[in-house]
Amino acid sequence: MKLDVDVLRYLSKDDFRVLTAVELGMRNHEIVPTELIDRIARLKHGGTYKVLKNLLKHKLLHHDSSKYDGFRLTYLGYDYLAIKTMVNKGVFVGVGRQIGVGKESDIFEVVCEDGTVLAMKLHRLGRVSFRAVKSKRDYLRHRSSYNWLYLSRLAALKEFAFMKALETHSFPVPKAVEHNRHCVVMSLVQGYPLVQVKQLQNPEVVFETILAIVVRLAEHGLIHCDFNEFNIMIDDDEKITMIDFPQMVSVSHRNAQMYFDRDVECIFKFFRKRFNLSFQESIDDNDDSNEEKDEDGRPCFSEIERSAGFLDKELAASGFTRKDEEDIQRFIEGGEEADTNSDSEEVDSVEDLNESNLSLDEEHENKGNDESCEAGESGAPEKEDATDEEENEMEDEAELNKSLNKQRQRAIAATRRGRKSLASRNSYKDKGGRSSHSSKLQKQLSGW
Ligand code: ADP
Ligand code: MG
């Protein structure tokens, strides 16, 4: 997927308004009914339908009519919402080349107004697992499906919170600058991932430094859980920076010992193979006895004192809650079994919308409390069949146009008759339980 930032320039206020309406709708619909998008966006004269076509053309939305007519955000659509917010906030003014691609993230250079170059990480949690779920074609699994928007946003929040907390305690990490949705902006690390380095002037020193970080992390109550040559950056002066934090766990995690030993093992193995370091006794990969680990100089998890305490306070200050941690761990450990329902999404929706920085015209503001603008639980069964980004983008153009035009006409007619009639005809009407969410959405929209 290409992140063509130029497209941003051609997108109007209304485009972003509709895109945000889809995002809001996705809090409790995997595919957002077209009528609901129209009601949330509240563009004049059925304008939503024209905008939807434009967003579809730019691949910012995906159209799905298999169960009912609706749309969902694509990664690209979500990227643009986050980037637009960052630009509006003045975090950066331009997006440059891609500098990294991980299993579940894409990393780009971004440039600030003063010319400073930063790194922007776009989380893509669920990208891999979506395919796994699809291949199983198991409806029950779909029932417990997760929302990739929510998971990616959670991963970004966690990464940001940990980076900040670690920085406060003088760990060598990038400087956390800002986060929004699934996007984290941080300082650009000068150097390369250790995996690309073939030679070191002082391999022993580097090795000791890295090992000391693992131990110090544990003293602060944390385990990296993916501490390897891909997530350790090194510069020309052989200075180390550790990156990539969404999978970190507390030392009180039930598998803490295993995660810690695995991190340590990765370091030992890499330095032995790449730089021919030898450790007193030969390292037996299958040997997990603590005694022998001590002999070859491996730190022993049970002997590390949690002298520095936990970083709970700092993490909480960044807005990362225990519930967030439970949700993300469930996904990381349980793969596609994770159940991150949209309820969790509703909690901080206000903040999200404020961050959108999209302005609303006078007329929309005045209509802020219009009772017809409920955005609620679908009366029909939810569309659970998660479709993948690259798949199924081909649509029957004629059919889509027909459907959109029909709905547009209906919307115009409804507007003429007064908005209430549209709401009463809507099959996705709130069933009561979520009505508070509906009015909340409306209030948020008024705040744009
Ligand atoms: P993932 O979670 O997908 O593994 P990472 O955070 O490990 O993502 O980043 C992937 C790659 O992007 C890294 O190996 C590195 O090359 C590059 N990268 C990530 N963050 C930065 C940064 N702050 N500065 C420079 N390069 C970075
Ligand atoms: Mg990584």
Automatic annotation (TrEMBL):
Q: Using the UniProt record, name the top-level EC class of this enzyme in a single word.
A: transferase
Amino acid composition bias (Low complexity), ranges on this chain? 435-448
Task: Write down the EC number.
Answer: 2.7.11.1
Q: Which Gene3D superfamilies match?
A: Phosphorylase Kinase, domain 1 (3.30.200.20), Transferase(Phosphotransferase) domain 1 (1.10.510.10), Winged helix-like DNA-binding domain superfamily/Winged helix DNA-binding domain (1.10.10.10)
Provide the coiled-coil residue spans. none
Catalytic activity annotation: L-seryl-[protein] + ATP = O-phospho-L-seryl-[protein] + ADP + H(+); L-threonyl-[protein] + ATP = O-phospho-L-threonyl-[protein] + ADP + H(+)
Which intervals of the chain are annotated as region Disordered?
Answer: 333-448
Keywords attached to this entry: ATP-binding, Kinase, Magnesium, Metal-binding, Nucleotide-binding, Serine/threonine-protein kinase, Transferase
Q: What is this protein called?
A: non-specific serine/threonine protein kinase
What is the originating organism of this protein?
A: Stylosanthes scabra
Q: What is the lineage of its organism?
A: Eukaryota, Viridiplantae, Streptophyta, Embryophyta, Tracheophyta
